[in-house]
């Protein structure tokens, strides 16, 4: 791992107080950001673009996800890590001849996490889907359990994240019973480049259908205005999708703001 230190004057935004310049290894930080359970406050802005949606494959959807990740250290050496996904969605011709936009259902994850002596990090906890009752919402409360396990060896990070959610209503607008599995592998270089391959697979038990995109991305950590920002670009392909779901190629752009440990 690169041992060159970058001295960065960070600003603690919540209190607007300057923090003394600290030495921060960019390569180490890039690899920490590959760990969803790292003790780093991060705020990714992720833009996803999908096409060929709807009954006649003429629809398109663009989704901007705000995904703040906030860790909380516990006295016993464990952490609580929360991740909230707030999507804003624009879609055209998903329903032929119409357009919709708005804040989609909000997904809140919370993991109790620990790292073992052999450097295996695991986490388990609840997940809650909060409907927003917009034109792009399921209008249904849902929740369940989520888990994650990963290991970092040298420049490699390998892991899997999963959850299962059910609707929480006696008469749901959108019956919900779905399993999500996200295997991932990343490689971080000494110059703070990160190469990633992952899938975001969902099995809908109600519709008995799979949604399987495979995504590849490249990211680079940079210092902008004295703050670390991880820029990412990626492309994916839908191996399998439900009836009316997206098909073919998909594209992703992301900027991830990070506040490393002091």
Would you kindly provide a brief summary of this structure?
With 262 residues, the protein is mainly beta. The protein has one helix at residues 26-33; strands at 6-8, 11-12, 17-18, 22-24, 41-53, 59-66, 69-73, 79-92, 99-103, 106-115, 120-130, 142-153, 156-167, 177-188, 193-199, 201-204, 209-224, 227-240, 248-259. It starts with 5 loop residues before the first strand and ends with a strand.
Topology:
Blueprint lengths: L5 E3 L2 E2 L4 E2 L3 E3 L1 H8 L7 E13 L5 E8 L2 E5 L5 E14 L6 E5 L2 E10 L4 E11 L11 E12 L2 E12 L9 E12 L4 E7 L1 E4 L4 E16 L2 E14 L7 E12 L3
Antiparallel strand pairs: 1-4, 2-3, 5-6, 5-19, 6-8, 7-8, 8-9, 8-10, 10-11, 11-12, 12-13, 13-14, 14-15, 14-16, 15-17, 16-17, 17-18, 18-19
Indicate how many domains the architecture comprises.
1
Sheet-strand content, in percent, reads: over 45%
- Multimer state: single chain
SS element count, helices: 1
Give the CATH architecture: Beta Barrel
Mean pLDDT: 88
Major sheet summary line: 15 strands, antiparallel
* CATH superfamily membership: monomeric porin ompg
Radius of gyration: 19 Å
The N- to C-terminal Cα distance equals 19 Å
CATH topology category name: Porin
CATH class: Mainly Beta
Q: How does the helix and strand content classify structurally?
A: mainly beta
- Low-confidence blocks of residues: 1-24
The number of distinct β-strands equals 19
Helix % is under 10%
What is the general shape? globular
Order of secondary-structure elements: EEEEHEEEEEEEEEEEEEEE
